[in-house]
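Mitogen-activated protein kinase
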Amino acid sequence: MIISEKNRREISKYLFQEGVCFAKKDFNLAKHPEIDVPNLQVIKLMQSFKSKEYVRETFAWMHYYWYLTNEGIEFLRTYLNLPSEIVPATLKKQARPAGRPFGGPPGDRPRGPGRFDGERRFGGDRDGYRAGPRAPGGDFGDKGGAPADYRPTYGGGSSGPRTGFGRGAGSYGGLRRRKSLGRASLLKAESMVSNGSKDSSSTSATAAKGGGGSGGKIKGVPTHGGRYVQYNVHGNLFEVSSKYVPPIRPIGRGAYGIVCAAVNSETQEEVAIKKIGNAFDNRIDAKRTLREIKLLRHMDHENVIAIRDIIRPPKKEAFNDVYIVYELMDTDLHQIIRSEQALTDDHCQYFLYQLLRGLRYVHSANVLHRDLKPSNLLLNANCDLKIGDFGLARTTSETDFMTEYVVTRWYRAPELLLNCSEYTAAIDIWSVGCILGEIMTREPLFPGKDYVHQLRLITELIGSPDDASLGFLRSDNARRYVRQLPQFRKQNFSMRFPNMSSGAVDLLEKMLVFDPNKRITVDDALCHPYLSPLHDINDEPICSAPFHFDFEHPSCTEEHIKELIWREAVKFNPDTQH
């Protein structure tokens, strides 16, 4: 839908002024109750803002509600050219009008929390293939991953608790052999159980290994002649093909849906099954689902998470929920970093090598990940690392990069912070540098509160860029903005990171470079002396063919996306009984 600039500004002004926008669930309503524009245009613009993380959406019985986020405040302040002293009503310390406590009609208070501050809380697709904690009684938490008090213990050994799990029947070839020589000690299976926990069944490893606590197992009811089994997972319908044998164990819940662990009776592999309910109600979210399915179907690499199945629905005409089956992982790097167990330089080296090895493959497929961060790097007990969550990925040749939210702020490259529309694979390398520093320091390198603070933290460490380092910026305004920022000298990295080896420090400096054209590439990073004990060009495969996003054209409707995902399910399950 084309929205005129006048109407776009009117809607944006209202959103910024109130801090929250609402719209009636009526696409045919000629005029919005409070803005002199069609109701549908408000809905469409807010859906666009939602995809960029400018607003957070909640629902009521008859209305949509969109709460302005910190990202949205920054964007609208720039778009509307507003001074910093003007703030949304939701930030003002004053009583709200009694008639409209949430910006909408009286008596229609939206369910769920209001706006949130700070770094986004976005579960994303990563929750679909990662085991997660269960609370006492078997209930699953808000997201996957190890619990907050998770304390892994690293010890010697040459095999993890699930040999043969994942691609290659438990063997990477050269990579696995090198690891068995002791480059990185392994994560013991028993260390995946939270120390001192009253309910050890609540840990991710127990779920992954097939254990369960009270309330964690749910009985199923056969349907469709026994070809499917239906479960009630804490009030949510969960219907999967019968080859995924009961019991189904709930292990997590992400922004996109419920996640359960199960065993594929045909392969005896433990898997994570993610249900995306009402997957085609929102075109943007539906496209993200299709994008990840297509991408992961195209890729085949030990350091990239694998899709095992798209469960074919019993009837095409009743196809509303998507069930994606992933290989199951124990935890993620974010949870390991948060634990109290010290990480050695060997661990850092091995995690980094696997990340770069997988990223080389991804980039060779003509794809940028665009959302690399510790929580999107999945791990299992033998230290295998896999890159996950490709819902924001894009091809390197696209020109409309800025149409969606890109990279969590703390891991965002300077060119993204400065709205550079033509960015490259260097944005992923910057994120890798942030992750490398975080592994060793156990805290984010650049925990910015907003764009301005983010840039300040970056320049405080790597120094303010000189004019030669701003050549990648085509915008004169962006260059002027950078020049007027406070000036800082580059810190001594060896002093700033005293616990890092000299090799790691040198590689980090080459990754955290302001000018993307001077940032080290993934190939050069793999060849860096720091990774020489692991590097083997003959064991670092590239993708056999580039990936194309041909299916993502602007006119693609929800029905067309549904048809494409249906076809993917049929490829996995061509059985004519359906």
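thats it. The first helix runs from residue 5 to 18. Residues 332-539 form a domain with the Transferase(Phosphotransferase); domain 1 fold (CATH 1.10.510.10). bye
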